[in-house]
Amino acid sequence: MRQPEVAGPLAALALALVLAAPVARDTVSLVRSAAFLTEFLTDGALPALSAMTLAPVRESLGPSLDRWTGITLGTAPPLLLVHGYAPQGKDDPRLARAARLLARAGFDVVVPTLPGLTRGRLRPDDAGPVVQALATRPGPWAILSVSIGAAPAFAAAADASVRDRVGVLLALGPHGSAAETVRFWLTGAYDFDGVSGRATHDPALVHAFVDANADLVDEATRAALATGDTARVERALAALPPTVRGLLDRLSPVRAMPDVRARVILVHGYADPAVPYSESLRLAAARPARTRVVLLEAVGHVEAAPGPLWRAARDGFRLLLVFHALRHAG
Asked: Which residues have a Cβ under 8 Å from the Cβ of 225 and sit 6 or more positions away?
């Protein structure tokens, strides 16, 4: 997901972040946080963090679990990285790059493979590997979930056996309702609490989603989708069988949110093409206390979006504060 067209604005963003760092108590931590964001958002085009840190060590904790460690700084907590759609799971190149960068930033990073999400399928049992990872040490853990990885991340953070081990949960581009996310993918429409809109999706991606999630889309909805009639698709989704609705409910972070005891930070791009930002608003409404929503214009789904320098600098500074909060979750 390289974004060469934003390298210029993000170079200025890096400078703005570094200049802001000395006003804070933990200067080294903030400088490394700024370097992390610069390298992450440019997909490595500006290797700011790699230039100032040693390569981390990757350790296998089993066939479906890896640990990445570097030079730990200050009070950085153990971090559980919960992937979204990643065909190779913990070995997915993009996921491995993110884990490597987080370890360079000072985190003790644990990355499980979630079987369903390697195939783009939402499944309740994907929360199991997250719960098992949290059970390996007392914490306080930080959880960083990506996209639809919010479903297993929030389910695990609400699990009574491990929820007290989670200090903070940071979700990037999460969904709140699985049913509304399916509706968005099939019709392009989204709405929540007065926020609404419509997006256009690539038909090939829509059909790939339907094929991977056959049990979430019944025959009536498939038939409606084949006609290209959005209103008919809306009607079919409204009449889904109770079994499908029950499964969608179990896959919705909004259901788990009231039982999550950790501090929650929701980061979402206004122009997110995969999950509309209204889903973060929906999720926050389920438990407003100790929940923060950060909406950005310079971010798409989980990547930088092109735009003016001032906007990148403003949103970059907001992300710096979020990342700093993640580092001090304990």
From this structure: 186, 206, 210, 217, 233
Kindly give the parts of the chain with pLDDT less than 50: 1-25
Q: Give the pTM.
A: 0.86
Q: What is the DSSP string of 24-64?
A: SS-HHHHHHHHHHHHHHHTTTSS-TTTTTSPPPEEEEEETT
Residue 278, φ and ψ in degrees, nearest 5: -60, -20
Residue with tokens 């853990």: 141
Q: Alpha helices of the chain — where are they, by DSSP H?
A: 7-20, 27-41, 93-104, 127-134, 150-157, 178-187, 203-212, 219-227, 230-238, 242-250, 253-256, 278-286, 309-327
Nearest Cα residue to 152 out of 82, 53, 217:
82
Where do the domains of the chain lie?
A: 4-177+252-327, 178-248
- Give the relative orientation of helices 27-41 and 7-20 as an angle to the nearest 10 degrees: 170
User: How would DSSP label each residue in 228-255?
Assistant: T-HHHHHHHHHT--HHHHHHHHHT-HHH
Place of tokens 């290797």: 47
Q: Is 4-177+252-327 a CATH 3.40.50.1820 domain?
A: yes
CB atoms < 10 A from the CB of 269, how many?
26
Q: What is the pLDDT of residue 2?
A: 35
Q: Rounded to an integer, what distance in angstroms lies between the CA atom of residue 179 and that of residue 248?
A: 6
Specify whether the CB–CB gap between 128 and 101 falls below 8 A.
no
* Chain CA centroid to CA 166, Å: 16
State which amino acid sits at residue 306.
Answer: P
**Residues 132/123/301/321 CA torsion (nearest 10 deg):** -30
Query: According to the model, what pLDDT value does residue 21 have?
Result: 45
